[in-house]
Amino acid sequence: MKLSQYNYNFTADMLAKYPAECRDESRLMVLNRKTGKIEHRVFKDVVDYFKPGDIFTFNDTKVFPARLYGNKEKTGAEIEIFLLRELNRELRLWDVLVDPARKIRIGNKLYFGDDDLLVAEVIDNTTSRGRTLRFLFDGDYDEFKAALFKLGETPLPKWIRTKVEPIDDERYQTIFAKNEGAVAAPTAGLHFSKHLLKRMEIKGIHMAFLTLHVGLGNFRTVDVEDLTKHKMDSEQVIIPQQTAERVNEVKDAGGKVCAVGTTVMRSIESSVSTDGRLKPFEGWTNKFIFEPYEFSVANCMITNFHLPYSTQLMMVAAFAGYDLLMDAYEVARTEEYRFGTYGDAMLIL
């Protein structure tokens, strides 16, 4: 498969600028891989496609306020910082993206907040993801983290809209978000409400959780036509023993194992035994999934409608089948489904 094959008739007005009024009332396209049949439902109807004993696997990562605005020393030039990864807790080192990057050099100091609540020094500009900053802060770690999060804002992707609003603090977060560390939300999980999870529990549908801290690598542009030459950025994954055991039990019993989102699917496929069983795992993954690919554990998945040329679109096409998925996207376009982070959902059976 080549990069150019992952384009479709996309226009900016197809993107959802705001979430649905209620989490579980976005639209749901149901795509059957065996029959090619497409159904149009509301997301809360997803329980109709599952039986007692089936399992949903969720990503419980939590988005932190990763975007900060500050000023450069001497010139006062406005600088935007996007926190990517904490490199060293004691030394207050962070891997960041800087915009505009061309104005920043090693040794420059950056000031954030009223009365310069935080000061950072650029100590490296050779990382693949941008810059390394050392925050200069006299207080203890908890005080430093509180200051950092006080100044930060929800890292809503700017292709949704440039202004972050109060609704985003809640809705750009799943209701089961627990383990802090993501700079982007696992979007398929945004559709689940407390009421929907309760209905699943009452029906006897199991739930399991893993953690993949979504980084910007999940959205990095693919700039090579030959997909085998694209390198994904590494992201941290934690698959607990209990999750692996529950998923394997359902798989062994012949039930549906549903991966909620591409981050869950990538996590699962990063830790599979030779006989197709999920293994506990704690580490990093840079797995890039595209056709042809044989999936080992999940036999269905929930996902949003992804942008052209995106690695998420490539993974979903590998799972659904390229031709079937591209046909479904054309149906979604004509039926005016909403695309992107705050958009509608697809259940692939």
How does the SSE layout of this entry go?
Elements: E1 27-31, E2 38-42, E3 55-59, E4 61-63, E5 67-72, E6 78-88, E7 93-99, E8 109-112, E9 118-124, E10 131-136, H1 141-151, H2 166-171, E11 179-182, H3 194-203, E12 206-212, E13 235-239, H4 241-252, E14 257-260, H5 262-269, E15 281-285, E16 300-304, H6 311-320, H7 322-334, E17 345-348
List keywords for this structure.
single chain, 349 residues, alpha/beta, QueA-like, Thrombin, subunit H, 9-stranded mixed β-sheet, 6-stranded antiparallel β-barrel, globular
Spans of 5+ residues with little confidence (pLDDT < 50)? none
Structural class: alpha/beta
CATH class of the largest domain: Alpha Beta
Put simply, the count of helices is: 7
Tell me the radius of gyration: 21 Å
- Average pLDDT works out at 92
Helix share, percent? 10-25%
> Under the CATH scheme, which architecture of the largest domain would be assigned?
3-Layer(aba) Sandwich
Strand order of the largest sheet: 2-1-17-16-14-3-12-13-15
What best-fitting shape do the alpha-carbon axes yield? globular
Largest sheet: 9 strands, mixed
CATH topology of the largest domain: QueA-like
N-to-C order of helices and strands? EEEEEEEEEEHHEHEEHEHEEHHE
* Extended strand count: 17
